[in-house]
Structure formats: C-alpha cells, structure tokens
Amino acid sequence: MKVGIFGLLGCGKSTVFCSLSGIRPADAGRREIVLGTVKVPDPRLDELSRIFRPKKTTPAEMVFADIPGSAEALLDAAAVAQLRTMDVLTLVLRAYQSPFLSEMPDPARDFVRVEEELILADLAVVEKRLERLAKEKTPAAAGEMDLLRLCRAHLEDGRPLRTLSLAEADAARLKAYAPLSQKTLLTLVNTPESAPDRVPEALLAAVTAHAGTAMPLCAPAEADILELAPGERAAFLAELGQHETARDRYLKVAYGALGLMSFFTVGEDECRAWTVRNGTDARRAAGVIHSDIERGFIRAEVVSYADFMEAGGSESRARAAGRYRLEGKDYRVQDGDIIHFRFNV
Ligand SMILES: Nc1nc2c(ncn2[C@@H]2O[C@H](COP(=O)(O)OP(=O)(O)OP(=O)(O)O)[C@@H](O)[C@H]2O)c(=O)[nH]1
Ligand SMILES: [Mg+2]
How far is the CA of 12 from the centre of ligand 1 (A)? Predict the structure, then answer.
C-alpha cells in the first residue's frame, strides 16, 4: 500500500512524513520524492509470534511518499504524475501560522483549492481520452465513451469521482486511468500546539461532502515523539492529551477508509501479517503471497485468530475442537484468519 503525502508549498508535508514514518527528510526545498516504509503494528501478530517462536516475524507494511511542493503551481506536473501511482492520497492542510508564508492558515480554503486541482487534472485526462475514442468508432469505444462522458459531467460540476457511484466493473475500468479524484483521500490537518486535536467545522463539512476523511495532528510534536524510545512515548503523548501516536491513529483511519484487513500465515520459519481488502476471496488472498499459490490453489485451511486463541493457542487442541475449516477458492477471507494454503504447481 503506497500513501502519497502531498499539499501546498510549506504546509508541513515533510514534517508529517516524519511524524508517520519516523524518517526526517534531509533539506527543505528538495525536489525529489522520499519514501519511508512503516511496519503496521498488530498485537495479534505479536501474540502468534510468541506462540510459534518463528525465525522471522513480518508485519504488514505501508509505504509513505513525501511529495515535494511547488512554488510555480498549486500542484505541479511532477506531483500529479507521482500521485497517480499511489493507492491513497494524504493531503496535508496547514492550520498553523507559518513564519515563511504570508497567507493566514485556512485549511478549508486550501482543501477546496487542492481538490479543484485534482478535479482539473482528471478532466484533462478524460477529455483527451474522449477525443481519442471518438476516432475509433467501435462498440467497445462507444461504451467507454458513455462512462467517460458521465465522469466529465460530474467533474465539470466540480465534484470528485470519489462521489460518483458506479457499477463495480465501471469503477474498475476507470481505475485504468488512475484518476486522482477517485482515489481514497485522507486529509491531515496540521494543527498548532495550542489546539492539537481540532478539525475546523468548515473543513469537516467540505471534506465529508467530498467523501474524504479528516484527522488532526500536530506534526512537529508527533515527529519528536517517534524519535523517543518506545517506552518514553506514553508520557509525552499524555502531555498532548493523546493515548496513541499520530502514526497509530493514522493507520487505523487508513485501514478503515480503505476497507483493509489482515490475515496471518504462521509456522516455525515465519509468522506474517498480510493486508487485503474486505471481501477478498481465498484464491486472491493466496495471490498476495505468491502468484504460484494463486494459480495452483487447491484449498485454504482456515482457523480464526479468536478460535485459535480460545483453544489456548495450540494447533492440536484447535484441531481436536474442530476449529480448522477447509475452504474453497470463493471463501471470503475474514479479518484475523490464520490460513494455510494448499496448492499445486
Ligand atoms: N509551528 C509549526 N511549524 C510547523 C508545523 N509543521 C511544519 N512546521 C514548520 O514549517 C516549515 C515547513 O515545514 P515542512 O514540513 O518542511 O513543509 P513542506 O510542506 O514539506 O514544505 P515543501 O516541501 O517545501 O513544500 C518547517 O520549518 C517546519 O518546522 C506545525 O504544525 N507548527
Ligand atoms: Mg517538504
């Protein structure tokens, strides 16, 4: 899962990147993208690892990308190109007074500005594609043109594609163009230390109307917290009136907004968490591990984490209690399933 952190010049993107990834990007004014990988904490995986004592424990990962701002445009072409490759867009909105910027902070205003840029970028793609399709004159092209005209009308109305309800097949077809305004949007309000956990009403209303999510954080303080030893973080957080880091809060919000869940594979060699979308079937889940396992899928042997723990974290007792199930390729994987795939290559 790749998360693009973006926003207007000097809104605090690199500080937010640091508060989520724990990595301080070198100098300001840099033009290249910086990546940081975060291990997604999951107490269930810790528990499984304690039981199986594997050689290796591998949590799920999320990759954050710090996309540089631009002095020339609200969103320059390089940022737009980067954002197209991301699974989630995380827009940083400045709510603190900056000594480097003359404009007063106004997150709702900036949200509207950036959202307009995303919509315009998508309109340009849709228009170009429509022009090309008009020359094809095939039934397939005609069908696609209907879909794109629907999108164009929606975008011309100033609305993001996130809020356009489409049949699953059409939504998938649209994804081929990687439209920015269709991607899941999480906004992070970078608040001053004096009002750390407030999302302004006006912003919340605007974001909600555009099917986005808003979360407040005080990026410089959160970046400092990640530099402390894990044992020292709780006291610092309490001072901010929080009980978890912005990173942990963010991961929960992101998993919820994206409809993500985890299943586990366990054994003496490795205990590992895998991330899939809600509703993923067993065969596709196998493909997340390896395409060979997906291709040669025979059966999935499944026990839920809860059932496994109820059997005292013992495989043999869980088996004796009939908690292991053999599931076929269409089985919908559930959050917390412990799965052993049987396959044939
Ligand atoms: N007071 C205060 N200062 C902040 C906050 N967030 C960032 N800053 C400061 O604002 C300046 C710009 O922050 P950056 O994180 O570099 O902003 P950026 O969006 O990455 O900037 P560009 O990449 O140049 O567009 C730095 O001096 C930060 O220390 C905040 O929440 N409060
Ligand atoms: Mg930066």
Answer: 3
Does the pLDDT of residue 84 top 80, yes or no? Answer: yes
Q: What is the C-alpha separation between 210 and 99, in angstroms, rounded?
A: 31
Whether the Cβ atoms of residue 307 and residue 296 lie closer than 8 Å to each other: no
Residues with CB under 5 A from ligand 2 (ion): 13-14
| 41 pLDDT above the threshold of 70 | yes
In CATH, what number does 2-257 get?
A: 3.40.50.300
CATH class, domain 279-343, is alpha beta
Cα(220) to ligand 1 centroid in Å equals: 8
Instruction: Kindly state the average pLDDT of the residues 25-54.
Output: 89
Instruction: Tell me the domain boundaries of the chain.
Output: 2-257, 279-343
Residue 196's pLDDT band, with cuts at 50, 70 and 90, is low
Distances (CA, A) of 208 to 163, 211, 215: 10, 5, 12
